[in-house]
Design goal:
mainly alpha, elongated
């Protein structure tokens, strides 16, 4: 029996105790999904003859591990999977179980922090549940860890622009926080996150920015009437359900970050 799969009863019991720690939940959900997928692999058959025979013996003896898998799926409202397991693909099954567990956790979490007995202790969390401390949309939408990291750095301005306080503290040799593409003797322009995303005149950025704005306006007519801060928030929060627009924004943000890095490297080389 697979090591992770054999521990599924323990993790299932742990989950049922309704412990709401986020780190614990991450481990639990991975363990449960791993156990269910291992059961699916055994049910659909493997190339290992001995393993298949061992599993058939487990089924004939109604082994405790199998009953725990069935009970777990029934308890989370997915009992029908036990009857039609061979109709599911591995990826499909993984997505169904994962989303169901996430949904259950969110329901229990919200119920816990909003209950009368926890009202005083969790009043701040309850008040901010759907606003300040809600997980940002871009974290769930962007699949690439590299692009997610770039979005986070730009949102915090963590060593991303010449005006970043963290960057200027780290690189004492940086002499200026002015954008080299836009500044002149009569016009000094600070290179901050808003500038490089919305205003920088770099030819590559300007071209891609125009394309981005045109595509966004096709899906959201109000975008052109937004102020600079609202546009910046729209882009860095990925406030669109269009997959095409999301991909264009991600490509544009990556170019913004790379150009900002080039400006820093050029300034350090002086």
């Amino acid at each position: 029996m697979h090591a992770r799969g054999s521990k599924i009863p323990c993790f299932g019991a742990f989950f049922e105790e309704n412990r709401l720690g986020r780190d614990n939940f991450t481990v639990i959900i991975k363990a449960i999904v791993a156990g269910v997928l291992y059961w699916w692999r055994l049910e659909t058959g493997t190339e290992n003859f001995l393993l298949n025979r061992a599993f058939n013996t487990m089924k004939s003896e109604n082994h405790e591990w199998l009953s725990h898998i069935h009970i777990l799926l029934q308890n989370i409202g997915l009992g029908d999977i036990c009857l039609n397991i061979k109709n599911y693909e591995r990826t499909q099954l993984k997505d169904i179980v994962t989303l169901r567990l996430q949904d259950l956790f969110q329901q229990k979490y919200y119920e816990y922090i909003c209950s009368d007995e926890n009202e005083q202790r969790c009043r701040i969390i309850s008040r901010c549940y759907n606003t300040t401390y809600k997980k940002s949309q871009y974290l769930n939408t962007i699949e690439s860890p590299q692009i997610r990291s770039i979005f986070t750095k730009l949102r915090l301005d963590a060593n991303c622009t010449l005006d970043s306080k963290l960057r200027r503290f780290r690189y004492k040799s940086i002499k200026s926080n002015l954008c080299t593409c836009c500044s002149s003797t009569n016009n000094n322009v600070t290179q901050d996150v808003e500038h490089i995303i919305l205003k920088c005149k770099d030819s590559n950025l300007a071209k891609n920015r125009s394309l981005l704005y045109e595509r966004i306006k096709m899906h959201d007519n109000s975008f052109s009437n937004k102020g600079d801060f609202s546009k910046l928030k729209y882009i860095l929060d990925l406030q669109t359900n269009s997959t095409q627009i999301q991909e264009i924004i991600c490509t544009f943000i990556k170019k913004c970050y790379n150009i900002s890095e080039n400006h820093l490297n050029r300034d350090l080389a002086k």
